[in-house]
Amino acid sequence: MKILCEVQVVNRTTQANRTPRPVKSTLAIGYKQSARDDNGNTKKELEMVLFSGQSKTGSRYKVRDNIHAVHTKFVLDGKATIGFKQPAENLLIKCDPIQLKGFLQTLKLGMEGKDAINLRLNIAAATAIPQKAQPQVKMVISKRSEYPIKGFPRTLKSLTINNSQLVKLSFEICSLRNLTKLDVSGNKLTKIPSELGRLALSSLHLGSNCLGELNDWCWLRGTKLSQSLGELDLSSNGLTHFPPPLVKCERLVSLNLNDNQLIRLPFSIRRLQALRKLHVCSNKLESLPSAIEDLHIDLLDVWGNCFKAFNSEEAQQLAKRTSGASSPQPLWLQAARAVANYKLPLPAGSLPAVLIELICEAPKCLCGQLCYALSKEDLLQRVVQPKFTNIKNLTYSREHQIYADVVICGPTCSASQQLKGLFSLVFP
């Protein structure tokens, strides 16, 4: 077995680095055939060979009864150390985690005297892997015939599979730990496996699929994905609802929801404070949430929607509503409002997860207070025009005025009183 890696050689006796820094190397392991003994039997001796620019012929190390220690604490990060007794040297290895784990497993089998396919390399004739044979980091598949029969290289960082009639995202793709960019646009996917949430993707393109049929968004709850995703394309998927877990992707910079069937955007969208580009053109939006004012967006594209006119019916009802005695607010809601008002930090584990979600996602009244368990009367649809103060560029159809949905804390809320005073002039 041979792997491409970076290796630094350290002498344990002198504590000197034989190589001043990690260098690109080839590490090989296999059996060396020795001369026949008096009985005519051939002895096999397990060896490891290190090929590098400084040692093109290879530095050879015996393995059996010659291993001082093997440190694998950081093997998931692609790092390991193999120490030999003679010579007293440590090999500090940095490699792809999957390949490194395979190499260490092969070493373990060899030390136990077991036979394995990866140990059938004739180590005496082994050579370095050519530098041109660098690990493949990018793959583009544009038709079914290009799909790899032997599987995907574990070293891939970018994978594109377009217009290939793909109906299922395989577990193998979800196991590519080095993957940061995935584009599977133009296929027939109806569901994404939850295992995809384990990948630290920065860019994910799922446009022109059929994800709106099942509306299964469990994969968006994956910790690694939600903490790393910066660009997401869900255009042309037949979505009728905004994916609820999407607001937890707080590092999202660009979101494309074009050509779907969305009627509304949630108030919880205010959690996406890193969002700079929001594309929701060619949907069925009737209004926007007032929470859109909390975002700092460079480009908001809402062209080709069905924005409805001012809702005079709800405005009249609010104008005629009488102010009754407000019921006392629960203590946990008062605590959440205090944390939000004073902008206190929310370190992990400091507060219950439910309370953190409430603080980050619950609608805010026009007076700035958090609201929860709203009654139907507290949600007013299309009663104010958004100012778009924090929107640098707005694209919309000018034949439609855009109105926003708002929430109010209750009849005694200051914002409610202001709206009532305004509407009472229009609807006496």
Gyration radius, to the nearest Å? Answer: 31 Å
Average pLDDT taken over every residue: 88
- Number of helical elements: 7
Query: How many independent structural domains?
Result: 3
CATH topology of the largest domain: PH-domain like
CATH architecture of the largest domain: Roll
Largest sheet: 9 strands, parallel
State the CATH class of the largest domain. Answer: Mainly Beta
- The SSE order reads EEEEEEEHEEHEEHEEEEEHHHEEEH
Q: Give the total of beta strands.
A: 19
How much β-strand is present in the residues? 15-25%
Notable features of this structure?
428 residues; alpha/beta; Leucine-rich repeat, LRR (right-handed beta-alpha superhelix); 3 domains; nine-stranded parallel beta sheet; seven-stranded antiparallel beta sheet; 19 strands; 16% helix; elongated; leucine-rich repeat; Leu-rich_rpt_typical-subtyp; repeat
How would you concisely characterize the structure shown here?
16% of the residues lie in helices and 24% in strands.
Overview of the structural elements:
The relative contact order is 0.07. The model has no long low-confidence stretch (mean pLDDT 88). The strands form three sheets. The chain has a nine-stranded parallel β-sheet with strand order 8-9-10-11-12-13-14-16-18, with no helix packed on it. It has helices at 97-111, 171-174, 223-228, 312-320, 331-341, 353-361, 414-426, and strands at 2-11, 23-36, 42-52, 59-62, 67-71, 79-84, 89-94, 138-141, 158-161, 181-183, 203-205, 231-233, 254-256, 277-279, 288-289, 297-301, 379-384, 391-395, 404-407. 16% of the residues lie in helices and 24% in strands. The protein is an alpha/beta fold. The chain folds into three domains: 2-125, PH-domain like, CATH 2.30.29; 138-261, Ribonuclease Inhibitor (Leucine-rich repeat, LRR (right-handed beta-alpha superhelix)); 328-387 and 400-424, no CATH class. It comes from Drosophila kikkawai.
